[in-house]
């Protein structure tokens, strides 16, 4: 088992390395002439020359990659091209905001969706299950920015219960912060609850179709004892791993939701820096979001391994 | 009396009327037809200014957009772009991914191991991030968007095709064909493919839906289809300012178009996926 | 006269099938179980045996429903019990032992907790007392070191132990009746005998009656006091074990009885090979094979070999049987010969010529000379191809036959294996398991091979059907002179068809000799054990066979 976990760790490190190559290549190699790409139509020979100097573009890509990677590892993320501000300092508060929203959504979503999943699996094809399965198809299909806009149009524009945009987080008053973040949180909630419930239900139903469940029934165990004691422990692995994957989504896929609510998070920072062609910021935000995604993926994999029934064959 | 006999059985007698998939199929067909025949269905060109900005429905079916262009016309032409990217990228990514994944499942050995490695590493990259990086690196033209989306879909298709292929390739009739000396393509084409059409079809639908949402999201961020053209996501972006004057239609119409199409696709997929290969085999 | 413990009256059950809707699978079945009895339900698979057995626990599987009848336990109809009453009844009054213990034991609960759980949940004892009782039960079922075993998980024990654990679990609440669903079928022959004996003793010790569901007349004859023969969901014969075995009245029972193969007398078997010794059609030289070859992508210790230097020859026209228990490597050997699995070391030779270890690199001439037929009738044929397409493919592939020639030849081949030619346009799902295996044989014959590898291809078939196919294989061999590599765990069938036998254990050939020698006096100790474990259809065989084991 330990062997398997080291294997996963190794893969995560490898993925991280690959990520850095992809991020670097996508920002500094793919566009061809980087300086031209950044300046676009404003390019004059002088400006191009000074930008090339600033970015060190006269060196070979491999050389630049390793010095960039070295800087990244030591915490030197460079300076923003647009504002000249230190990238690390720019990113820190944005990261905190993104994590705050993700944590808020996760704390509500995870218990709720696991519970709903168990209930749906306990009464398969009964009314509650059918209602949820139809509802979840709808929620899963609608992109999160559309969900966000719908919520805004109802709760912010029509009812005026919650603010439509979150420009600055009100850290000093936690309670009003919860209200402030309500709409972005609900938007994220919709996307991950539907997915997690479906997967929890499927994982548990899969286990509940095993012969040992029939055996437990024929031993005279009650319905809930069968589900909670005989079924759930064998489904924990897949459920935990789905939850971790969704948390990974919460920190890496939120750009759209952040843009809808003008939320000062990492995702919006990246989108903005892409439109301004602010290379160091793009690289840093992309790397940090990938890092978090990879960590949650790793947690998902490790949970799946750890919760495999003891001694059951693992590959 | 039967009710006293309790079971925790998982599969009931199956869903009854496939009403929902029928609705889904109809909606998908209407959207596709609407996109194809868009030029015949609209009275105003999508780029023409026909009225004041955000004019309510009346002279035009859905009113006008931020610049006073016919919203209905833009919606239909937007469908063309959205569907072109979605179906185009999925078809490319799907064809390559299936071939790769199935070949890996059938050949096994180092090729399979290598595939597993590559797929695992690429899937560790958040897809939205990959899309953003690719379009930020290369100017977002239609061809590049299609190519980038195909590349993002590819590893997922490889993984699924490999898993589906593995289920079948260990079955005994496939072994018999292999022992007969049949080549890779003959085994894939004759023995494996006919038995996995259903799950593959479901996967294709899933990927088209995913691509639709993805391109809509990119365009919504302003990084997909570029103005003056607009797909559905781009239309939502263009008309966001309508919400400030309390007019929801210009935003909700394209937003709902995305949602309705995706819901319809998922209803169809759910129905296709219901009888998977495994069940087919065990019912034999 | 004593009152019956269980009375089943006019029981009718329907099953749902997507094509046909609700269809009766159990018709109007009535029988009694008296205290102290072991009633066997015997019949072919799909005959409704398990379905009937489960109604004794008030349970009908999902996809089936009760269509009529009563099941009385101590005079009360359990089918009208409330849910809660039923829950308290199950496990406490009637308990179930499932066919596959490895699947029916929960992998995430310790053995001890799985057994004591029932006692506590039925409110019979405190947790501490239940634990003590659990250890007693494990001891009673002759399991080693109960305190240690109770703390382990099911998958950490052997198949035979798992089956005993499940029997202990079923006895935990002191039920009056056990429903035993083929409890020894999934086990190896040598283990089967011992588990059967343990169950028999436990039933006596705990004073429980039983319904014993089985397809194996020989096994049933060792444990049952009464036998009910089922066919297509109806009872066709019922009577005391001795009467049913010795004086079967129904034709189906007689067929079942005749299909039980007895080990032959040694003197009836050929002592020397009758086939002329010529150049072998297929030879295997010192083959070693392993699964999961490590590569640069998959590190870790090199997995152990499944085959440790196996060598054997197959001569033209002979039947070489390869016998051994599961895990002995016999199927891997078949795969190596067929070119489906690469040997790590050693060679495979066809007519003296070394051939590639992979089928795709062999010449057509050499591919066509060896064909393989597998175990499972469900997987034997591509569900999307008609019979004509399945058999036609080798004809086109090896001989390049035209469509009309193929059709003619397909019909000839079908006739050869006893299938009407109009089956050519059928799909596999329209045929029975036996018919599908016949088609698979025809497909192999289409290549006009000199050797056919039969990998356990009878094990999933009902005894009567299997017996018919053995007869077919014999007549084909006589007609066509094809050699067979007959891989099987069933010694009685092997004795009927084979010229020579290779006995495999732990990846080695421990004995390779003419059939008469193997079944005669000179034999390897393991062979002797295998032979002794073949159930015989006579009362008292179990005890005498086991005393034989004790003697060695």
Question: Any descriptors?
Answer:
heterotrimer; B: 284 residues; mainly alpha; MetI-like fold; 69% helix; 0% strand; C: 552 residues; alpha/beta; 6-stranded mixed sheet; 20 strands; 24% strand; globular; MetI-like (chain A); signal (chain A); ABC transporter permease (chain A); MetI-like_sf (chain A); TAT_signal (chain A)
Short description:
With about 280 residues, chain B is mostly helical. Chain B has helices spanning about 20-35, 40, 70-105, 110-125, 125-135, 140-170, 170-180, 185-190, 195-220, 230-240, 250-275, 275-284. Chain C: It is a peripheral membrane protein.
Description:
- Chain A has helices at residues 2-29, 34-39, 45-55, 61-73, 87-122, 127-141, 144-158, 174-180, 182-208, 211-218, 223-252, 255-260, 266-275, 279-306.
- Chain A has two domains: 2-30 and 90-306, MetI-like (MetI-like fold); 32-76, no CATH class.
- With 315 residues, chain A is mostly helical.
- The longest helix of chain A is centred in the N-terminal third of the chain and has 36 residues, at 87-122.
- Chain A is globular and about 85 Å long.
- Chain A starts with a helix and ends in a 9-residue tail after the last helix.
- Chain B has 284 residues and is an all-alpha fold.
- Chain B contains twelve helices and no strands.
- In chain B, helix 1 packs across helix 3 and helix 3 (71-107) packs antiparallel against helix 4.
- Chain C is of the alpha/beta class and 552 residues long.
- Helix content of chain C is 37%, strand content 24%.
- In chain C, the strands form four sheets. A six-stranded mixed β-sheet of chain C has the order 6-7-8-3-9-10, with helices on both faces. In chain C, strands 16-17-18-13-19-20 form a six-stranded mixed β-sheet, sandwiched between helices.
- In chain C, a hairpin with a 2-residue loop joins strand 4 and strand 5.
- The model of chain C has no long low-confidence stretch (mean pLDDT 87).
- The interface between A and C is medium-sized, with 22 and 32 residues.
């Amino acid at each position: 088992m330990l062997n398997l976990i080291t294997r996963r760790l190794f893969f995560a490190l490898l993925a991280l390395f690959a990520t850095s190559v992809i991020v670097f290549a996508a920002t500094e190699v793919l566009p061809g002439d980087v300086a031209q790409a950044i300046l676009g139509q404003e390019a004059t020979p002088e400006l191009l020359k000074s930008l090339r100097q600033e970015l060190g573009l006269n060196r070979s890509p491999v050389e630049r990659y390793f010095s960039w990677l070295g800087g990244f590892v030591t915490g030197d993320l460079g300076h923003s091209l647009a504002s000249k501000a230190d990238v690390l300092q720019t990113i820190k508060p944005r990261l905190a905001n993104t994590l705050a929203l993700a944590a808020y959504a996760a704390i509500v979503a995870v218990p709720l969706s696991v519970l709903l999943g168990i209930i749906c699996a306990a009464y398969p094809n009964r009314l509650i299950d059918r209602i949820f399965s139809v509802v979840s198809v709808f929620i899963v299909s609608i992109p999160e920015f559309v969900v966000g806009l719908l919520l805004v149009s109802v709760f912010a524009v029509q009812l005026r219960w919650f603010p439509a945009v979150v420009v600055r987080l009100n850290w000093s008053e936690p309670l009003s912060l919860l209200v402030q973040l309500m709409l972005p949180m609900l938007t994220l909630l919709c996307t991950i609850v539907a997915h997690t419930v479906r997967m929890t239900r499927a994982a548990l139903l899969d286990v509940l179709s095993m012969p040992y469940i029939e055996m437990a029934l024929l031993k005279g165990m009650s319905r809930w004892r069968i589900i909670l004691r005989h079924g759930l422990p064998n489904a924990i692995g897949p459920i935990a791993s789905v939850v971790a994957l969704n948390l990974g989504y919460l920190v890496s896929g939120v750009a759209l939701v952040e843009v809808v609510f003008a939320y000062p998070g990492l995702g919006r920072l990246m989108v903005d820096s892409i439109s301004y062609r602010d290379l160091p910021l793009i690289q840093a935000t992309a790397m940090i979001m990938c890092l978090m995604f990879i960590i949650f993926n790793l947690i998902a994999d490790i949970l799946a391994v750890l919760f495999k029934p003891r001694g059951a064959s693992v590959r | 009396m039967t009710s006293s006999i309790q079971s925790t059985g998982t599969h009931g007698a199956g869903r009854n009327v496939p009403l929902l998939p029928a609705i889904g199929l109809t909606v998908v067909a209407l959207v596709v037809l609407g996109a194809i025949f868009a030029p015949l269905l609209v009275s105003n060109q999508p780029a023409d200014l026909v009225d004041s900005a955000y004019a309510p429905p009346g002279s035009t079916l859905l009113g006008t957009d931020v610049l006073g262009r016919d919203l209905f016309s833009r919606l239909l032409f937007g469908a063309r772009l959205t569907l072109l990217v979605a179906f185009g990228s999925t078809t490319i990514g799907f064809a390559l991914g299936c071939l790769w994944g199935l070949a890996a499942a059938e050949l096994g050995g180092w090729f399979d191991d290598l595939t597993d490695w590559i797929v695992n590493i690429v899937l560790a990259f958040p897809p939205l991030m990959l899309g953003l990086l690719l379009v930020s690196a290369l100017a977002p033209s239609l061809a590049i968007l299609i190519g980038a989306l195909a590349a993002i879909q590819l590893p997922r298709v490889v993984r699924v095709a490999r898993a589906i292929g593995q289920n079948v390739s260990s079955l005994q009739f496939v072994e018999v064909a292999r022992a007969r000396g049949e080549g890779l393509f003959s085994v894939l084409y004759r023995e494996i493919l006919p038995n996995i059409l259903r799950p593959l079809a479901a996967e294709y639908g899933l990927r088209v839906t995913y691509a639709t949402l993805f391109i809509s999201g990119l365009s919504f961020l302003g990084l997909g289809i570029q103005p003056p053209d607009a797909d559905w996501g781009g239309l939502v972006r263009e008309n966001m300012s309508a919400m400030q004057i309390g007019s929801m239609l210009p935003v909700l119409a394209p937003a709902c178009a995305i949602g309705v199409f995706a819901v319809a696709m998922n209803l169809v997929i759910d129905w296709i996926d219901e009888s998977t290969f495994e069940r087919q085999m065990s019912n034999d | 006269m004593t009152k019956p413990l269980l009375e089943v009256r006019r029981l009718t059950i329907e099953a749902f099938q997507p094509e046909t809707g609700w269809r009766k699978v159990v018709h109007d079945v009535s029988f009694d179980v008296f205290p102290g009895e072991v009633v066997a339900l015997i019949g072919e698979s799909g005959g409704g045996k398990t379905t009937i057995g489960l109604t004794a626990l008030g349970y009908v599987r999902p996809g089936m429903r009760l269509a009529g009848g009563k099941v009385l336990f101590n005079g009360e109809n359990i089918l009208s019990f409330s849910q809660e009453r039923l829950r308290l009844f199950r496990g406490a009054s009637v308990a179930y032992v499932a066919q596959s213990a490895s699947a029916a034991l929960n992998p995430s609960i310790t053995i001890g907790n799985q057994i004591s759980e029932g006692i506590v949940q039925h409110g019979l004892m405190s947790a501490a007392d239940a634990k003590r009782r659990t250890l007693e039960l494990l001891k009673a079922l002759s399991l080693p070191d109960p305190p240690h075993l109770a703390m382990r998980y099911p998958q950490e024990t052997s198949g035979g132990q798992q089956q005993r654990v499940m029997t202990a679990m079923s006895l935990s609440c002191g039920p009056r009746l056990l429903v035993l669903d083929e409890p020894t079928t999934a086990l190896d022959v040598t283990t089967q005998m011992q588990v059967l004996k343990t169950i028999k003793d436990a039933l006596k010790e705990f004073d429980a009656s039983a319904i014993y569901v089985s397809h194996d007349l020989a096994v049933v004859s060792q444990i049952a006091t009464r036998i009910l023969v089922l066919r297509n969901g109806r009872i066709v014969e019922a009577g005391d074990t001795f009467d049913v075995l010795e004086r079967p009245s129904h034709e189906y029972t007689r067929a079942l009885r005749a299909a039980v193969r007895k080990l032959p007398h040694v003197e009836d078997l050929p002592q020397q090979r009758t086939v002329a010794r010529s150049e072998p059609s297929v030879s295997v030289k010192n083959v070693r094979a392993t699964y999961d070859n490590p590569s640069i992508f998959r590190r870790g210790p090199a997995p152990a070999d499944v085959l440790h230097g196996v060598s054997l020859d197959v001569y033209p026209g002979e039947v070489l049987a390869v016998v051994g228990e599961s895990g002995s490597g016999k199927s891997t050997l078949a795969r190596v010969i067929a070119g489906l699995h690469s040997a790590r070391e050693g060679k495979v030779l066809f007519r003296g010529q070394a051939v590639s270890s992979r089928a795709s690199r062999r010449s057509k001439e050499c591919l066509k000379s060896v064909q393989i037929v597998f175990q499972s009738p469900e997987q034997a044929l591509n569900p999307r191809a008609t019979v004509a397409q399945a058999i036609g493919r080798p004809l086109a592939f090896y001989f390049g036959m035209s469509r009309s020639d193929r059709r003619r030849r397909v019909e000839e081949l079908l006739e050869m294996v006893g299938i009407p030619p109009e089956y050519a346009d059928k799909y596999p799902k329209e045929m029975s398991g036996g018919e599908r295996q016949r088609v698979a044989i025809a497909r192999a014959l289409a290549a006009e091979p000199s050797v056919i590898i039969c990998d356990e291809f009878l094990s999933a078939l009902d005894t009567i059907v299997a017996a018919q196919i053995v007869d077919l294989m014999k007549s084909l061999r006589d007609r066509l002179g094809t050699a067979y590599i007959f891989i099987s765990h069933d010694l009685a069938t092997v004795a009927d068809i084979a010229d020579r036998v290779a006995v495999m254990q732990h990846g080695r050939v421990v004995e390779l000799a003419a059939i008469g020698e193997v079944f005669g006096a000179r034999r390897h100790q393991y062979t002797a054990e295998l032979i002794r474990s073949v159930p015989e259809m006579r009362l008292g065989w179990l005890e005498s066979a086991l005393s034989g084991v004790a003697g060695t």
